[in-house]
Amino acid sequence: MGSSMDVLEMAVMLSSLLLPASPLARDHQDLTTRNLNMTFDPREWKLSWECQENATNVACFMIHKEGPFKKKPEAKACHCTFSPLPLSDGVTFEVKMTINQSLFMGRLNYPNSGGEGTAPQNISCFIYDARFMNCTWEKGPAAPGDIQYFLYVRASEKEETECPHYRSDSGTHVACHFDDLQYLTFHNYFLVNGTSQQVGIQFSDLFLSLQEIERISPPANTSVTCNTSHCLIRWEKPRTYHRLSHWDLQYQLDIRQQGSEDGDDPKPVPKRKTPAPCTSTCWWFWEPSPSPWSSGFFLRGSL
Question: What is the model's pTM?
Fold first, then answer.
């Protein structure tokens, strides 16, 4: 009996080994690499290739650190356009298609060429006073002595704008000042590349939105009016480069006792029903004046 079971198990094992490969495995085995003369335009984020006759089931793939992305080109088109992402970590593009029932693939690597550790680090930009922008970065740890960096900003599909006013450290650009922001849009592409006579320099890039880099100025024209029954505090919405409504800004009002320190807890503001029209840029509360704690207040605004 045991011998019969052994024979049966062996027969089952052999039959499973003789089963035909699955279509997925067969497709992977039959995939042939072909030179499609692929090109990538980083300005338009367009991947193009040489059109192939009788090609069907064409698909484009982008292998990026944020994940693989797939696109289907329009009918008979030989290009795909991807959503913009930073390129400094390198990216690989693939095009797969079927020709006469055979699978073909083209591959294009878009590396960040240059010496490791030569790219600028810690790029940071901020808008202030609603009309200026500063950007800073640091030298790469392996940057050669003759390194020079250059900053470019591109908004949507507009032309790149180079930094108009560099600030240097020992002759190397490490910061930039912009006094004209009219070309910026909500999302902007920042690129810092470099040159050297000794080694190729890697670049760094990132996308920044106006909302995340704008530093809001303090509220303007603040005033306090008090009588024997109540106080009214008014202020004006600060100027911003990025257009904001009253709903986009939130204000915090702290009222402190006379002689209190910055670290002391502020007294809660006893806001009551407003007896007169009051927008989001004013605060009405009942409190007889003068008051031992209403002699100082702090007003902050945030997004």
Answer: 0.70
Q: Which two tokens stand for residue 68?
A: 């693989």
Answer whether 168's CB lies under 8 Å from 137's CB: no
pLDDT per residue as tens digits for the range 259-283? 656 555 655 554 444 444 455 566 6
What kind and span of H or E run contains 9?
A: helix 2-17
Q: Which of 222, 235, 221, 242 is nearest to 303 (CA)?
A: 242
Q: Tell me the pLDDT tens digit for each residue of 106-140.
A: 999 999 999 999 999 999 999 998 889 999 999 99
For domain 220-302, which CATH number applies: 2.60.40.10, 3.40.30.10, 2.40.440.10, 3.30.70.1400? 2.60.40.10
| CATH of span 28-110 | 2.60.40
User: Is there a contact between 37 and 49 (Cβ–Cβ < 8 Å)?
Assistant: yes
